[in-house]
């Protein structure tokens, strides 16, 4: 990689790290250390597994009141982003149910009851 490209990448990573640290620290001070989806509680020992999710998926929108954030555990956070990806691509084959049944077992019930 060229030196000017490396400098741009380094600067971008530094800015992203500073931005992430800023809103993460604010959110951890503002909200209880509980996953907003599954309710799992966190302590200092496992706090690294609690993430800050941007509700509107815009990581640059960080209002000081925290209205765009929610604390989610790693698993729930991944699930939220998976839902967004699936919605963008029209769902995934794994989430579609089986084909609907077309056979109606009661279609001729009245006729069958008359025969008895």
UniProtKB/TrEMBL annotation:
Ranges where the record places region Disordered: 91-116
GO CC field: cytosol
Domain HNH: 35-82
UniProt keyword terms in alphabetical order: Endonuclease, Hydrolase, Nuclease
UniProt xrefs under InterPro entries: HNH (IPR002711), HNH_nuc (IPR003615)
GO MF, one annotated term: endonuclease activity
One Pfam family, short name: HNH
Protein name: Putative HNH nuclease YajD
Lineage, opening ranks: Bacteria, Pseudomonadati, Pseudomonadota, Gammaproteobacteria, Thiotrichales
